[in-house]
Amino acid sequence: MKLKHFVLTVVILINSGCDLKKQVDEAIIDISGKVTDEGQPVKGALVLLVESADVSEGFSLANGSITSSNGNYIILDVDEGDYYILAVDDVNSNLQFDADTDRIGFYGVDPSTNDITPDQITISDQDIEDIDIVDLYSL
Fold first, then answer.
1. What predicted TM-score, i.e. pTM, was given to this entire model?
2. What's the pLDDT at 74?
3. Is-contact 95 101, C-beta < 8 A?
């Protein structure tokens, strides 16, 4: 019962325009963006925050999210550090990368300009927006 009252109090304070909302938002670092393929949003893609872009060694997952119906995602509560953003179109929804069916894409890769190296992002003390992944590929 006490937990219910605490949660209700926090919700009321946040919605009442109290400075608490701003403090909570500033304390939690988020990364957001959109996943598309051939210009179309990708619904239900796994968006992963990883420490290395080397597919052969597997991925060390730091955090993640799933895209909404319009391809948007938000990764909440991100720790400071250097990361790569990876999207997986998990065709069979098993939350695993299946090389024979799933497609994959990295933030910063743009084959139209021969840029096939993923961009690393550095998280410090503020939210990062517009980290878009624009193409997905089969391996």
1. 0.76
2. 96
3. no
Task: Give exposure, 46-55, as e/b (b: 16+ Cβ within 10 Å).
Answer: bbbbbeebee
Mean pLDDT, rounded, for 109-120: 87
d(CA 110, CA 121): 16
Who's near 93: CB < 8 A, 6+ residues apart?
Answer: 44
- In tens, the pLDDT along 11-62 reads 555 565 555 444 445 568 899 999 999 999 999 999 999 888 876 666 667 7
Q: Superfamily assignment of 29-138 in CATH?
A: Carboxypeptidase-like, regulatory domain (2.60.40.1120)
Task: Judge whether 85 and 31 are in contact, CB under 8 Å.
Answer: yes
CA 51, chain centre distance (Å): 13
Whole-angstrom distance, CA of residue 109 vs CA of residue 112: 9
Going by C-beta distance under 8 Å and a sequence separation of 6 or more, which residues neighbour residue 61? 48, 49, 50
The domains of the chain are located at 29-138
The residue whose two tokens read 């503020």 is: 126
What is the distance, to the nearest Å, from the Cα of residue 32 to the centroid of all Cα atoms in its chain?
Answer: 6
